């Protein structure tokens, strides 16, 4: 009887420890799973770790399907990932100079996870937390939800965040990112960090892809990729993609490759603006992108160095391209950039729309 009572005591203590762990860190008790959306020949998979898009299957001009996003076979691999493959990044995407900013007369210090700067929200940004799944209809949409606490990675205030991926028709994928501050003004700038290769994730580099960017200006950066505060024309420079051309045609003129914020043409408002068109000649695949954000980061995976991904594919430099619609980088420290500060009672809304075709 004594042994039985001892065993019950041990079990009770163990349950108490688990409950306390859940109370202190809710993510301990969340399960990490994978989810799928499918309609017609378009199929997309996700995990609630980082709200990551793990794969996207598309047919080519002959109907052959390929996975066109870079990623890993297991969720555990995403936990050790430094590339942000397919993740939702935040609370503030891109870089914050000196890992600090001032808001309403108060200085806030964020996590310096890239030298002395903050990148994509800090060492444990939204890409490295477990999201809950609020709703999932496999033929329609999935909504992930996360509560960002006051002081998380140095950012002020509690914020509720929702990310919804939805299929529209048989060849469109929409993404809606929403956030609401609950008690303090705070900067919010979320981004989708998917690496695209329209020839297939394991097909080599994207230098022969053609791209058109609907952006006449960029925000130039210093050697640490921090914006100088200037806004300059792309005309006549290697950054000029106003007409479609191969990504690799002038990439050798840049140190490392493309990693720059483009100022999307048109007036920022509720309406979506065409942002980019990417095409791949061998497969005939084309991807068009619209967004309601002021900027888009064009990145050619310059820092990939033999990363082992899905199916043991080895992703090297230029293996994928990112088109991260966003607010301007380091806007918290540049008053001439569009503000990303959102106050209680206001809402943050970021919409992306992808259309896929093959001819």
Automatic annotation (TrEMBL):
This is Aldose 1-epimerase. Beta-D-galactose binds at residues 94-95, 193-195, 259. It holds the Pfam family Aldose_epim. It comes from the Eukaryota. It comes from Eruca vesicaria subsp. sativa. PROSITE patterns: PROKAR_LIPOPROTEIN. It is an enzyme of class 5 (isomerase). The active site is at residues 193, 324. CDD domains: galactose_mutarotase_like (cd09019).
């Amino acid at each position: 009887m004594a042994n039985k009572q001892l065993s019950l005591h041990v079990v009770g203590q163990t349950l108490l420890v688990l409950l306390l762990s859940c109370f202190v860190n809710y993510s301990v008790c969340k399960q990490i799973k994978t989810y799928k959306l499918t309609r017609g020949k378009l199929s997309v998979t996700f995990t609630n770790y980082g709200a990551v898009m793990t794969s996207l299957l598309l047919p080519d001009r002959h109907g052959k399907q390929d996975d066109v996003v870079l990623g890993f076979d297991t969720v555990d691999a995403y936990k050790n990932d430094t590339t942000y493959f397919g993740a939702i990044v935040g609370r503030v995407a891109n870089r914050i100079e000196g890992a600090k900013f001032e808001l309403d007369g108060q200085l806030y210090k964020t996590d310096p996870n890239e030298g002395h700067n903050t990148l994509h929200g800090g060492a444990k940004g939204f890409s490295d937390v477990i999201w809950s799944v609020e709703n999932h209809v496999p033929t329609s949409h999935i909504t992930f939800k996360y509560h960002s606490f006051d002081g998380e990675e140095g950012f002020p205030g509690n914020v509720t965040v929702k990310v919804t991926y939805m299929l529209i028709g048989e060849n469109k994928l929409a993404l809606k990112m929403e956030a609401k501050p609950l008690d303090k003004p705070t900067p919010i700038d979320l981004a989708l960090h998917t690496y695209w290769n329209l020839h297939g994730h394991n097909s080599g580099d994207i230098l022969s892809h053609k791209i058109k960017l609907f952006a006449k200006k960029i925000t130039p950066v210093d050697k640490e990729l921090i914006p100088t505060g200037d806004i300059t024309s792309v005309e006549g420079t290697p950054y000029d993609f106003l007409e479609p051309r191969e990504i690799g045609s002038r990439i050798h003129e840049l140190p490392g490759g493309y990693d720059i914020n483009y100022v999307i043409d048109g007036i920022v408002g509720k309406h979506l603006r065409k942002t980019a068109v990417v095409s791949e000649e061998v497969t005939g695949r084309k991807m068009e992108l619209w967004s309601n954000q002021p900027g888009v980061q064009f990145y050619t995976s310059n820092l990939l160095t033999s990363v082992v991904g899905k199916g043991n594919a080895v992703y090297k430099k230029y293996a994928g391209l990112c088109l991260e619609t966003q607010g301007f980088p380091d806007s918290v420290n540049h008053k001439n950039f569009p503000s990303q500060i959102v106050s209680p009672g206001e809402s943050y809304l970021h919409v992306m729309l992808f259309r896929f075709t093959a001819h």
